[in-house]
Q: What sequence folds into this?
């Protein structure tokens, strides 16, 4: 019916989706090692490219509110499937201007059933491309649905505690920069969202690239053989192997480790059509 009633998907299904979407079947524990510099160097470019494509589609749909004229946040929360019973709330933040922020700390509070919940959120490197961070401490308690189909969550308090720019200057500088806002959450948790390096990324563009690889394999192994009257037995076995989840992940990361060059070329050519 709505987000709360859809939250009962099994944890095993959620884990399977996240492993498939992120390509973690290939890299195992390395993907979870969020402080591992090798993981950041190898995988981050592809995640960034996919997230940028996501925001090209969604940016105009979000409300943005300025906080101290330093950052912006959206009161329209997102939701992602988590490890527990309920989806995870995500808040989107970005730099207000083209100023690159080296380090950021915000505090978010909410009062539910007389209890005040508080969470500090830290982010390294923030620019104009929004970043979505999990509000894991705050409870998911939907109120009535609004006219846009989103569910109201009540009032939240947000405070900007630290915003260090590239020169090492804290732009907050002891000032109290805080607001109270009414939050809402979208109806359905997005299956294309995965957690990596302590934030959530939309990997729909990565999935699209994997499907393109699958199509290429089909044309080269199956379609071409049919056209030329060749035997399909061995080719079908090969196709099942290379088009499996593991096979597609191996092929994708082989092409995009370190720079995501092939993926960005594909995205550029698609956008120009």
A:
């Amino acid at each position: 019916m709505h987000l709360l009633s859809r939250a009962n998907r099994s944890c095993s299904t959620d884990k399977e989706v996240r492993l498939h979407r992120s390509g973690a079947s290939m890299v195992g524990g390395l993907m979870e090692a969020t402080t591992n510099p090798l993981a950041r160097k190898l995988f981050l470019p592809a995640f960034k490219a996919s997230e940028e494509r996501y925001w090209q589609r969604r940016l105009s749909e979000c409300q943005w509110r300025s906080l101290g004229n330093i950052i912006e946040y959206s009161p329209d929360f997102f939701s992602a499937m988590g490890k527990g019973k309920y989806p995870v709330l995500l808040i989107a933040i970005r730099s207000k201007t083209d100023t690159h922020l080296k380090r950021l700390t915000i505090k978010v509070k909410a009062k539910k059933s007389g209890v005040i919940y508080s969470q500090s959120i830290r982010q390294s490197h923030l620019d104009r491309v929004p970043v979505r961070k999990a509000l894991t401490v705050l409870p998911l308690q939907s109120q009535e649905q609004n006219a846009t189909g989103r569910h109201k969550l009540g009032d939240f308090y947000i405070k900007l505690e630290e915003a260090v720019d590239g020169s090492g200057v804290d732009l907050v500088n002891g000032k109290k920069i805080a607001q109270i806002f009414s939050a809402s959450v979208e109806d359905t948790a997005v299956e294309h969202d995965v957690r990596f390096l302590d934030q959530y990324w939309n990997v729909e563009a990565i999935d699209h690239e994997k499907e393109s690889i699958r199509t290429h394999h089909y044309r080269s192994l199956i379609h071409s053989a049919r056209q030329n009257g060749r035997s399909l037995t061995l080719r079908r076995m090969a196709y099942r192997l290379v088009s499996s989840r593991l096979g597609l992940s191996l092929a994708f990361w082989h092409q995009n480790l370190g720079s995501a060059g092939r993926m960005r070329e594909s995205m550029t050519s698609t956008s120009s059509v």
